[in-house]
Amino acid sequence: xxxxxxxxxxxxxxxxxxxxxxxxxxxxxxxxxxxxxxxxxxxxxxxxxxxxxxxxxxxxxxxxxxxxxxxxxxxxxxxxxxxxxxxxxxxxxxxxxxxxxxxxxx
Amino acid sequence: xxxxxxxxxxxxxxxxxxxxxxxxxxxxxxxxxxxxxxxxxxxxxxxxxxxxxxxxxxxxxxxxxxxxxxxxxxxxxxxxxxxxxxxxxxxxxxxxxxxxxxxxxxxxxxxxxxxxxxxxxxxxxxxxxxxxxxxxxxxxxxxxxxxxxxxxxxxxxxxxxxxxxxxxxxxxxxxxxxxxx
Lengths: 106, 181
Fold this sequence. Notes:
Structural class of chain B: mainly alpha
Number of strands of chain B: 0
Number of strands of chain A: 0
Number of domains of chain A: 2
Oligomer: heterodimer
Shape of chain B: elongated
């Protein structure tokens, strides 16, 4: 969660163009944000949980149960995250042509 | 996954760097379909314990046929009157019997699978993480796609630059996995 907060803060700094004012280029800032990207830091939440839950999976239904666990993770960081972000964008009126409120969404 | 992401980002960056010419979408989808099929086949062949129910059902059916044949052979002893009474099953009856067995086994298997999974939700250790990640999906948005629009339009970043930098996501993913291990 702390890494998510850090990544979102960096994105906010970039959208406010504060990185340029202190002399950090967009490329370096983007590199830092990508290093702490959703997919990479979500691994730190997924892996330990998956390892612990694997011990609870009953015999003979391993594939189905693992599919349920993986589906929950995909919901959390891909599907649900994209749906909720589109909801926020709708509320704040942000789209491809109107990025003025993007910092407020972040 | 990480290697796939790195290859995808580098490929996308290279295409953009070479002028971003349109490529036949069939090539993309064909490649994608090929990768999915390869992964599907790999998942079946690499670990027999993770085989899908369909394969297990097929095996059960074959085993059932084998047992049935063995029983028929065992029952074919010499009768008292010396006359053999061979039961002839039509192929239709035999197939419909197999199908009925397979369907019953499939229903039973599905029912048992769902029961086992639902039983797991009685335990706090199971349902709390599931609930947590479900709620995370609702309350934690991901603005990666929107940030792409921001970088390429507002910051005037080249698309190939974005693609190459995006490789870092998957490199760090590998790094985090190593860190966890």
